[in-house]
Amino acid sequence: MQTIRTKRLVIKPYEKKDLEALSELLLDEEIKRSFMIPDLGTKEALDRMLDKLYRYSLSDEHFERGIYLNGILIGFVNDVEIHEGTIELGYVISPLYKGQGYATEMLKAVIQALLGNGFDTIITASFDWNAGSIRVMEKSGMHRISRDEHVLYHGKDERCVYYSTASS
After folding, report:
1. Is the pTM of this model over 0.85?
2. Domains annotated on the chain, with CATH
3. How far apart are the C-alpha atoms of 74 and 46, rounded to whole Å?
Protein backbone atom coordinates (compact mmCIF):
# COMPACT_ATOMS: atom_id res chain seq x y z
CA MET A 1 0.00 0.00 0.00
CA GLN A 2 1.98 2.95 -1.24
CA THR A 3 -0.33 5.71 -2.50
CA ILE A 4 -3.87 6.65 -1.45
CA ARG A 5 -5.83 9.10 -3.61
CA THR A 6 -8.89 11.09 -2.64
CA LYS A 7 -10.86 13.71 -4.55
CA ARG A 8 -8.31 16.42 -3.66
CA LEU A 9 -5.38 14.72 -1.94
CA VAL A 10 -2.59 12.24 -2.54
CA ILE A 11 -1.28 10.40 0.54
CA LYS A 12 2.08 8.85 -0.25
CA PRO A 13 5.69 8.34 0.83
CA TYR A 14 7.83 11.47 0.96
CA GLU A 15 10.14 12.51 -1.81
CA LYS A 16 13.56 13.95 -0.98
CA LYS A 17 12.47 17.30 -2.42
CA ASP A 18 9.73 17.53 0.25
CA LEU A 19 12.00 17.28 3.30
CA GLU A 20 12.31 21.08 3.62
CA ALA A 21 8.50 21.39 3.72
CA LEU A 22 8.37 18.52 6.23
CA SER A 23 10.91 20.30 8.44
CA GLU A 24 8.68 23.41 8.39
CA LEU A 25 5.76 21.29 9.62
CA LEU A 26 7.86 19.71 12.38
CA LEU A 27 9.08 23.13 13.58
CA ASP A 28 5.76 24.98 13.32
CA GLU A 29 4.79 26.29 16.76
CA GLU A 30 1.05 25.83 16.26
CA ILE A 31 1.55 22.21 15.19
CA LYS A 32 3.90 21.53 18.12
CA ARG A 33 1.22 22.79 20.51
CA SER A 34 -1.23 20.04 19.51
CA PHE A 35 0.92 17.23 18.05
CA MET A 36 3.57 15.57 20.20
CA ILE A 37 6.86 16.24 18.43
CA PRO A 38 10.15 15.68 20.25
CA ASP A 39 12.43 18.66 20.82
CA LEU A 40 14.33 19.21 17.58
CA GLY A 41 16.41 22.10 18.87
CA THR A 42 19.52 21.36 16.84
CA LYS A 43 20.04 20.98 13.10
CA GLU A 44 21.45 17.49 13.75
CA ALA A 45 18.31 16.43 15.65
CA LEU A 46 16.09 17.78 12.87
CA ASP A 47 18.17 16.07 10.17
CA ARG A 48 18.01 12.75 12.05
CA MET A 49 14.22 13.05 12.37
CA LEU A 50 13.79 13.93 8.68
CA ASP A 51 15.96 10.99 7.65
CA LYS A 52 14.00 8.64 9.93
CA LEU A 53 10.61 9.81 8.67
CA TYR A 54 11.76 9.58 5.05
CA ARG A 55 13.01 6.01 5.58
CA TYR A 56 9.81 5.04 7.46
CA SER A 57 7.70 6.37 4.58
CA LEU A 58 9.44 3.94 2.23
CA SER A 59 9.21 1.01 4.66
CA ASP A 60 6.55 -1.70 4.76
CA GLU A 61 6.94 -1.89 8.54
CA HIS A 62 5.66 1.63 9.24
CA PHE A 63 2.80 3.75 8.02
CA GLU A 64 4.35 7.18 7.44
CA ARG A 65 2.91 9.26 4.61
CA GLY A 66 2.88 12.81 3.40
CA ILE A 67 -0.43 14.50 2.61
CA TYR A 68 -0.22 16.34 -0.71
CA LEU A 69 -2.52 18.91 -2.31
CA ASN A 70 -1.66 19.74 -5.93
CA GLY A 71 1.84 18.35 -5.35
CA ILE A 72 2.44 20.45 -2.21
CA LEU A 73 3.10 18.74 1.14
CA ILE A 74 0.42 20.10 3.49
CA GLY A 75 0.65 17.54 6.30
CA PHE A 76 1.47 14.01 7.32
CA VAL A 77 -0.08 10.91 8.86
CA ASN A 78 1.92 8.26 10.69
CA ASP A 79 1.73 5.24 12.94
CA VAL A 80 2.21 5.81 16.63
CA GLU A 81 1.98 2.12 17.43
CA ILE A 82 1.15 -1.09 15.56
CA HIS A 83 0.06 -4.15 17.53
CA GLU A 84 -1.79 -7.31 16.43
CA GLY A 85 -4.14 -5.88 13.81
CA THR A 86 -4.47 -2.48 15.48
CA ILE A 87 -2.75 0.68 14.32
CA GLU A 88 -2.72 3.97 16.21
CA LEU A 89 -2.31 7.00 13.97
CA GLY A 90 -1.30 10.61 14.41
CA TYR A 91 -1.85 13.29 11.78
CA VAL A 92 -1.05 16.92 11.06
CA ILE A 93 -2.38 19.46 8.57
CA SER A 94 -0.49 22.71 8.12
CA PRO A 95 -2.21 25.65 9.83
CA LEU A 96 -2.37 27.29 6.38
CA TYR A 97 -4.75 24.53 5.21
CA LYS A 98 -6.87 23.93 8.32
CA GLY A 99 -10.64 24.25 8.25
CA GLN A 100 -11.01 23.11 4.64
CA GLY A 101 -11.88 19.46 5.26
CA TYR A 102 -8.49 18.04 4.27
CA ALA A 103 -7.90 16.22 7.57
CA THR A 104 -11.31 14.51 7.43
CA GLU A 105 -10.86 13.61 3.75
CA MET A 106 -7.41 12.16 4.50
CA LEU A 107 -8.46 10.26 7.62
CA LYS A 108 -11.50 8.66 5.97
CA ALA A 109 -9.34 7.46 3.06
CA VAL A 110 -6.53 6.21 5.30
CA ILE A 111 -8.99 4.31 7.53
CA GLN A 112 -10.56 2.65 4.50
CA ALA A 113 -7.15 1.73 3.06
CA LEU A 114 -5.79 0.34 6.33
CA LEU A 115 -8.95 -1.68 7.06
CA GLY A 116 -8.65 -3.07 3.53
CA ASN A 117 -5.01 -4.01 4.11
CA GLY A 118 -5.19 -6.27 7.14
CA PHE A 119 -5.87 -3.95 10.06
CA ASP A 120 -8.94 -4.62 12.20
CA THR A 121 -8.91 -1.43 14.25
CA ILE A 122 -7.66 2.11 13.73
CA ILE A 123 -7.10 4.30 16.81
CA THR A 124 -6.38 8.02 16.97
CA ALA A 125 -5.95 10.40 19.88
CA SER A 126 -6.05 14.09 20.61
CA PHE A 127 -5.53 16.43 23.50
CA ASP A 128 -8.97 16.88 25.04
CA TRP A 129 -8.98 20.63 24.28
CA ASN A 130 -8.41 20.12 20.52
CA ALA A 131 -12.02 20.36 19.32
CA GLY A 132 -10.98 20.49 15.64
CA SER A 133 -9.13 17.18 15.80
CA ILE A 134 -11.94 15.56 17.76
CA ARG A 135 -14.42 16.73 15.11
CA VAL A 136 -12.21 15.20 12.38
CA MET A 137 -12.18 11.84 14.16
CA GLU A 138 -15.96 11.88 14.66
CA LYS A 139 -16.66 12.97 11.06
CA SER A 140 -14.41 10.11 9.93
CA GLY A 141 -16.72 7.59 11.62
CA MET A 142 -14.62 7.00 14.71
CA HIS A 143 -16.07 6.65 18.21
CA ARG A 144 -14.73 7.76 21.59
CA ILE A 145 -13.43 4.83 23.62
CA SER A 146 -12.90 4.51 27.35
CA ARG A 147 -9.18 5.19 27.16
CA ASP A 148 -7.75 8.46 28.48
CA GLU A 149 -4.13 9.16 29.28
CA HIS A 150 -2.31 12.02 30.91
CA VAL A 151 1.04 12.99 29.43
CA LEU A 152 3.54 15.64 30.37
CA TYR A 153 4.14 17.65 27.19
CA HIS A 154 6.05 20.94 27.12
CA GLY A 155 5.83 21.10 30.89
CA LYS A 156 2.03 20.79 30.96
CA ASP A 157 -0.16 17.89 32.05
CA GLU A 158 -2.22 17.12 28.95
CA ARG A 159 -5.18 14.74 28.82
CA CYS A 160 -5.39 12.62 25.67
CA VAL A 161 -8.73 11.21 24.54
CA TYR A 162 -8.89 8.24 22.20
CA TYR A 163 -11.14 7.33 19.29
CA SER A 164 -11.44 4.05 17.42
CA THR A 165 -13.06 2.47 14.39
CA ALA A 166 -14.12 -0.36 16.72
CA SER A 167 -17.02 0.32 19.07
CA SER A 168 -15.54 -0.60 22.44
Report:
1. yes
2. 4-164 (3.40.630.30)
3. 18
